[in-house]
Amino acid sequence: MPVVTVEGRRLPLSNLDKVIYPDGTTKGELLHYYAVHGNVLLPHLVHRPLSLLRYPDGPDGETFFTKNVPPGTPDWVNTADVPRSGGGTLRQVVVADLAALVWAANLVVEFHTPQWRADEPGLADRLVFDLDPGAPATVVECCEVARWLRERLAADGLTAYAKTSGSKGLHLLCPLRPAAPSARTSAYAKGLAAEAAAALPGLAIATMARRLRPGRVFIDHSQNAARKTTATPYTLRARAAPFVSAPVTWDEIESCADPDRLVFTLHDLSGRLSRHGDLMSGLADPRRAGPLPADG
């Protein structure tokens, strides 16, 4: 088993030649992606308790979520006690540096985080909308809904940042300052989703009813609940290819007419970062955050 040194930490890495994705992408390539792009991923992980979707044998193998600190976690990896929704606490990993990121990536995971920090549980410093298209709708229809939400959020003084979900849809995120109770953030998001559905009849819905989903975009506001998590910006997904939950520009959303134009894999990220920089940097910058409206 090869051992590498990352920021002074010795890390044993396993099965680097193992094919993880059907296109032939190996575990070594997956680890290289996280090591090279840790500088843009880490700001969205530090201070946040992690939920890990593990897929050690690839997306066609067994997948399972874990929130508890995995067995064998090194003692130098940060952890935090966070409240359970039903009472008591749960101990979770908090990735604080590149070494911890590479250690976690060696487990072959998707990174998922809540909208609050471990030191302020239940106080959301981000607002999120998950735009999920029901076939035959695609990400093209998600872009239309995203444009409406962006303008509406701006009217309330909030700045929206967009990324692909790494699956079929889009995620919109807004930094909040000061942080607001998750229940209040959830109520604001639910109201705005209902407003969007009313303004975009036939295109958007704000309820989870499956019979209403075909051809429409479901505006999922539920991930603002304190117990919920969202795929972290730049995480790889356990899909048919090494798709990335990749930040996108608003110009790309404005001009989106082909769903394939908003699909990105780990092989695309270096070029995108060279062209655009970190499009999500504002999400982790409190100077760019706004307060939740008083009546939210």
From TrEMBL:
The keyword Ligase applies. Residues 26-279 form the DNA ligase D polymerase domain. Its EC number is 6.5.1.1. InterPro entries: LigD_pol_dom, NHEJ_LigD. Keywords: Ligase. The keyword Transferase does not apply. GO terms for molecular function: DNA ligase (ATP) activity. It is an enzyme of class 6 (ligase). Residues 277-296 are annotated as: Disordered. PANTHER family: BIFUNCTIONAL NON-HOMOLOGOUS END JOINING PROTEIN LIGD (PTHR42705:SF2). This is Non-homologous end-joining DNA ligase. It comes from Streptomyces johnsoniae. The lineage of its organism: Bacteria, Bacillati, Actinomycetota, Actinomycetes, Kitasatosporales. The gene is ligD.
